Amino acid sequence: MKIGTFLTSLTAALMLTGAAMAQQAQPIVIKFSHVVAPDTPKGKAAERFKMLAEQKTQGRVKVEVYPNSQLYKDKEEMEALQLGAVQMLAPSLAKFGPLGVKEFEVFDLPYIFPSKEVLRSVTEGSVGRGLLKKLEGKGIIGLAYWDNGFKIMSANKPLKTTDDFKGVKMRIQSSKVLDAQMRTLGALPQVMAFSEVYQALQTGVVDGTENPPSNMYTQKMHEVQKFATVSNHGYLGYAVIVNKKFWEGLPTDIRAVLEGAMAEATTFANTIAETENNDALAAMKASGKTEFYTPTDAEKAAWRKAMLPVHQDMEKRVGKDLIDSFYKEAAKLGFKN
User: Fold this and answer.
1) Which domain does 111 fall in, by range?
2) Phi and psi for 33 in degrees, rounded to 5?
């Protein structure tokens, strides 16, 4: 081989090797989209996962977090994940009903969790894992459950008794269970994207809504709601999910590290949720813009009695056996339905 030809071949080989190394050095990008503010429990947990993932993989993974519906609204984000436009989401559990996995709407049932301990028993046990497994047929892997908290009712009129809901237009997530809950109370449920709720409350398109205090506060809903009732009637949580094809295509070692990072971020998320909600409730009370009411024990019992029939009404939709499995977890901890 002539020297010139050899040098040319060597140069080409070095260029190819350099290009391959450069390509190999490119980090794996995970776009993590969500619809709430960065300073909510979910927003903070997403940032914690980003930090842990990048740190533990030594830069081999880059997590880009997009909060506050920057990329997609409620109805759009699940399709974007399935198409691979984003790799990770943390949608509220109600979002899986419209996707076709209606069993997740069991989490929307009013008074399904008598305590945080029962909730944890479900999400960290076989019942919770079984529900996540159902997502795989939709091209989705469920990684973890993240808490937000228990919901309060708000409106521009006092909501002290169940009779007060009659004719009130209440924003809900797209959930047949939440629709049934509001109709049972005599309210008029209105499905609406989370990012649109503040303006809808401000302009009177809807009269009220239900949210954990942290969501209500960070979205400034207390500025456009005159009254709120600390009812703690329902739970709002999230499932952290990834695109199945993307997740299974990751190098085995990277996937294992990310699972560890997610476990740590989940512990963080579920630890801060209660504190964040308590702080948000205190801040809203201090603002004086919303008048908060805490029901008496008798009023709480009346609310529960009025809404428990929703459980039976939804048996055909979410599954009687599944609802019973939630009751069994509660019974293990000494609670009776």
Assistant:
1) 25-332
2) -105, 140
Query: Is residue 15 one of the residues assigned to a domain?
Result: no
pLDDT of residue 5: 54
The three-state secondary structure class of 12 is: helix
Among 89, 307, 74, 302, CA closest to 179? 307
CB-based contact 49:32 (threshold 8 Å): yes
- Do 50 and 84 form a contact (C-beta atoms < 8 A)? no
254 occurs within a structural domain:
yes
The per-residue pLDDT for 75 is 79
* pLDDT for 2: 54
C-beta separation of 188 from 130 below 8 A: no
d(CA 32, CA 46): 8
**Overall number of domains in the chain:** 1
What are residue 243's phi and psi, to 5 degrees?
-65, 125
Task: Give the predicted TM-score (pTM) of the model.
Answer: 0.88
At residue 268, φ and ψ (nearest 5 deg) are -60, -50
pLDDT at residue 173, as a whole number: 92
Has residue 3 been placed in a domain?
Answer: no
CATH number of the domain at 114, please: 3.40.190.170
User: DSSP character for 248?
Assistant: H
**Mean pLDDT by groups of 10 residues along the chain of 337 residues:** 51 47 75 92 95 97 95 88 96 92 97 95 96 97 96 97 97 95 97 94 97 94 97 96 98 98 96 94 98 96 96 97 97 88
* Element containing residue 136 per DSSP (H, E): none
- Residue reference for tokens 């295509």: 249
Beta-bridged to residue 292, according to DSSP, are 228
Backbone angles phi, psi at 224, to 5 degrees: -125, 20
